């Protein structure tokens, strides 16, 4: 729990410092690239995540990485703060929740949209507009295709699940009929 809480604290601060989508995408890609770099060398990763390397040595490694890759100053400073506060071991968790923190900082709701086939742009826009009116927030979709759906869609927001498929409607009807029979 502490790991998630700390990861949220750092990524929230980073997300709030970002000006626009372009900068967000760049920083996210740079952080993912740095994670790949770390995972390619277990000794280096252990050295940066633990006290195996000293602070000066860790900063030197980060500076060399920056000069080799050209990462942005904001990404460099974020990684430097993680090193200064001995939080580099949290970086993977931070990258995993970074998108959610970005959307939250912009007051955007993210839903997983599950459909049998790809929705056309008009259908997707109408659904976004309806959700936007209800939530009074902008909406983005992470789209998934589930060929087992006969018709309709399913939406997920965190652990909340909305089923607007034929199967879901039939299940609701069946549950309604069963509960009416029990009365």
Question: What does the model show?
Answer:
This protein has 183 residues and is an alpha+beta fold. The protein has two domains: 103 residues; 76 residues, no CATH class. The protein has eight helices and four strands. Strands 2-1-3-4 form a four-stranded mixed β-sheet, sandwiched between helices. Strand 1, helix 7 and strand 2 form a beta-alpha-beta unit. The longest helix is centred in the N-terminal third of the chain and has 19 residues. The chain is elongated, with a radius of gyration of 22 Å. The mean pLDDT is 86.
Defining traits:
4-stranded mixed sheet; alpha+beta; 183 residues; 4 strands; 2 domains; 8 helices
Span of the ends, CA to CA: 44 Å
Q: Could you say which overall geometry the principal axes of the C-alpha atoms support?
A: elongated
Strand order of the largest sheet: 2-1-3-4
- Rg, Å, rounded: 22 Å
Task: Annotate the secondary structure layout.
Layout: H1 2-17, H2 21-39, H3 42-49, H4 55-69, H5 73-84, H6 91-105, E1 108-115, H7 121-135, E2 138-145, E3 153-157, E4 160-163, H8 166-182
Parallel strand pairs: 1-2
Antiparallel strand pairs: 1-3, 3-4
Helix pairs in contact: 1-6, 2-6, 4-5
